[in-house]
Amino acid sequence: MPNGYNGKILRVDLNNESIEVEEPQEILYSRYLGGGTLALYYLLRELKPKSDPLGPENILVFSGSVISGTPAAGLSRFSVAAKSPETGGFGEAEAGGWWIPELKFAGFDAIVIKGKANRPVYLWIHEGQAEIRDAGHLWGKFPKETQDEIRKELGDDRIRIALIGPAGEKLAKVACIINELKHANGRTGLGAVMGSKNLKAIAVRGKKRMEVADGEAVQRLSKRLKDTYEEPYFSVGNLGTSRVTTMFSEQGILPTLNFREGSFEGAEAIGGETMSKTILVRRGTCYGCFVRCKREVQVGKPYFVDPIYGGPEYETVAAFGSMCGISDLKAISKANQLCNIYGLDTISTGSLISFAMECYKKGILTKRDTDGLELQFGNTEAMIKLVERIGNREGLGDTLAEGICHAAKKFGKGAESFAIHVKGMPVPFHEPRGKVGVGLGYAVSATGPDHMEFPHDPWWATEAGVTLLRPLGIFEPLDVFDIGPQKVRIFIYLQQYWDLLNTLGICMFTAKPFGPQTINGIVDYVKAVTGWETSLFDLFKVGERHVNMARIFNLREGFTAKDDTLPDRFFQPMEGGTLKGKMIDREQFSKALETYYEMMGWDTETGVPKRGKLAELGLDWLS
Amino acid sequence: MPNGYNGKILRVDLNNESIEVEEPQEILYSRYLGGGTLALYYLLRELKPKSDPLGPENILVFSGSVISGTPAAGLSRFSVAAKSPETGGFGEAEAGGWWIPELKFAGFDAIVIKGKANRPVYLWIHEGQAEIRDAGHLWGKFPKETQDEIRKELGDDRIRIALIGPAGEKLAKVACIINELKHANGRTGLGAVMGSKNLKAIAVRGKKRMEVADGEAVQRLSKRLKDTYEEPYFSVGNLGTSRVTTMFSEQGILPTLNFREGSFEGAEAIGGETMSKTILVRRGTCYGCFVRCKREVQVGKPYFVDPIYGGPEYETVAAFGSMCGISDLKAISKANQLCNIYGLDTISTGSLISFAMECYKKGILTKRDTDGLELQFGNTEAMIKLVERIGNREGLGDTLAEGICHAAKKFGKGAESFAIHVKGMPVPFHEPRGKVGVGLGYAVSATGPDHMEFPHDPWWATEAGVTLLRPLGIFEPLDVFDIGPQKVRIFIYLQQYWDLLNTLGICMFTAKPFGPQTINGIVDYVKAVTGWETSLFDLFKVGERHVNMARIFNLREGFTAKDDTLPDRFFQPMEGGTLKGKMIDREQFSKALETYYEMMGWDTETGVPKRGKLAELGLDWLS
Mind listing the domains of chain A with CATH numbers? Predict the structure, then answer.
């Protein structure tokens, strides 16, 4: 038996407002570690297939990992998971911030929430205890007021709060969960699941010191991480994630005008360098991190933007910028703030608006449908208004809040061909025609397309990138347009790596390929914290376990191999930009999917994990 | 690209007696490391399928690894590989001793030998050079004379020599290759391949210092290995491998009377403790090893046994002892010496005699067939005479020397049901009815049943055993009789581990579970020697590569899933001993085979590795 990690899981049943503390056997932590993998363990055991994602039967899990809360930089991330109301399949979203370390200091690794409260409530967790408190006075309130009131009534302004805004309360299928007003578990509509349970917020505060097996090693590894940090080529610390905007535009892979084009003339105006020179007031950060990639921006006129809501990440810049044909960074920042205030996923929200704009352009939507908004690409005012209307579920915004498939169906007239989604979730802003491995990731991801779930092709397209992958036995760089068996192999190894990072809650800007934490360094760190004689072999099996468990979740919900696909647009030539004319070859892509299934130990036709594979992963119980 | 290992391969073509030195790209070493895996790389590329194993077209590879010759204990082992004349499939056998470190000091990692000399020759390798020398005067000579003469004519008595005896010259299909008179690459008949090439010996001498990437780490890890060594529970150093004889007999898993029974009344008389108290004169060892598990025994009367030929290992004790119903350790030692003198595999030879004894008992063989030998179980004289006759290929010995299938066919009258073999090679002396995972290993091994290719069930049947397997994510012990999916999973992981040990040339008595070298320690050591940022993930892929490449080798030769089986005897009840009545359930075993194929990424019906699996292992070139 492994030896060295004891933890607690908080179990909450909102139906009867009961609370229990579970102390799992250490073997559970060894096998699932935390994050979405631990969440899937509970979901697959306790959630009945075909449950209503917005019904009381859905289970909502907040999960850190065995290393969350320990001192190394980049461990601020955690997962929220449930059945997704946006896709109907496995829903998972990660966020950074300060919330998960605080939960660990309060004594818990994870919270498993069932049922629905018969009144608005919030959860207050501190010092190994938890209570369910009335949130009647908080319902309908924006995050800032909610946060202030909770801190005031509990008398501690260091309480960390994850909460939903009005969009979550109103069950918008693109609603997110926000902590510290600016860190979002953005995707798959989990804010609506929280809303459906009448759960406004989870407030946490703890003072427990984290115990680790080898304190000296933890300190040494944490220090080494800091000492060896160098800004990556795209200056994520200095210039934020949106530094890549101009670079992508030059490379022709900046999604523009609803993925019609790949270069955007306003790229520089909305990119990270401009942000730094104009509206940035502070570089923000997460718990214990030296990278400081987060942005805090301030705008006076014409849009008031308060730095307490942070600032737009790359995805948000692309969502409300190039995707909507808007080159006004202040407007984008406003849209970002509105999303954080209403509790909306910026990626899905921006994509929905871009989609609506294309429908408007094609005459599928008219001013009548938009309640008067002139929804041309580039119309800044209309974009901002539509964000608010989605958050408030008004008019066209109400339709869009139900998700892109629902909206496309309602619009009719061929709107579906402009809905750039997989499994019902809009595609994030990494152009698969310019990095084809990303396309494979979009197609096979159980959550729908997720830019935080698999690594992007350019990583392995250079000698330097490949050097980082040496522990995986990868020696040769492959072209970004390649989608042959060797690309699929690398994709699979990196998907497992990425799923491991998410499971452990490690931020990619502190881990290779962007940060100083080497792949083997992660093993050393897990050993130091837990005392387990683990290995990269063992930890990668956890990543593989995550992929397989999420797959099984979706199969139970009725998903099939047919759902592992890309929108037609990516099999059509790009209409503008540096890569104009580039498209994905449909046949090669099908072949890659088949190869992926085969390499995964899944049936090549149905994509169902074989019994042997499940048994090999210790997942016999899912056969 | 990896960085840190440069090596040389010696290529010999005996057809025209030409010699070349190849300096492979480092990536080749990274992917294949050495041993049978590196050998398979050459065999699969350069040996035409369906070649005559005793024809000049067969390729014979002697291979160490990237870590052979460096200071840690237990690195004295190497592989010889070729197409096997005993099975017609992949032939591989490992041996310890002093030969491979010397080859490394002489500047080479491996030797790839093709063709057939038109006269007896030997190979002389020293200081990065090699020459082919006449061996006319050595042909027909026994190992001691051969060794003495070569050392004398080359003027260096520290030359290390791997050679064949008369059995190899006469193409006995159970002939082995011997170094230092007592270390045998025993199985799969590779001595005959050497004989078929007219190659009597390979003499090596080198003074090159091994270069390592991190000398301090190599020293530290080597010292730690030594400092942390404790005798395992079966006292392999003090009492030799045959210490287990009595233990196995008590447990009912000592193969007795051609696998009819599992306990032997003479077990104590032939076991390691008796050997230590009676005929042992010295504990022998291999290069740089502190375990000293080897035996050197001396017998005066009635059989002269010289300690220069070592002493019997457990397998040999069982082969000529319990299998033949013989409880005379001196006679067993004589048989061992004869095998080393004639160059015979003790396992196959003992098994052949035991088989013949059963045929004699059943009346299938009579005194006429045996040239007068009274071949009852327990007849010591007859046993010893038959060893010599096999070595000299006389009468019944000639028939047996052609292999167990050939002999069974020739005997007729149902003899085949007494031939306890898989793929034409006799089964070594680990009773699969008492450790069913071993049975799975026998069935699927590409070389035919090999006790050095997979770990034995009791390893993982205890809490302590399982602790050693923590880096593989194995937490729970399983019963020795279990053959369900979790057992198959552990079997697969350990098969890859074992194949990795063989590939690197690491002795199991210095590596876990018997020795102090932990599974993760092996990764550290490979890193220290090569400078590669490798991992257990990466190294286990090499083990997996070995299993798959050997499989492909056999498929090319016409083997099918039907060859992955056990002799009927193991599906029948044991007739005596502690486990009397125990048998393997045929249906469960079939199911386990299917599970094994599935977990391996092979077709569940045909056992053919899928394209996806081969691509994942970087073996696309074998599809």
Answer: 9-205 (3.60.9.10), 231-418 (1.10.569.10), 436-514+535-622 (1.10.599.10)
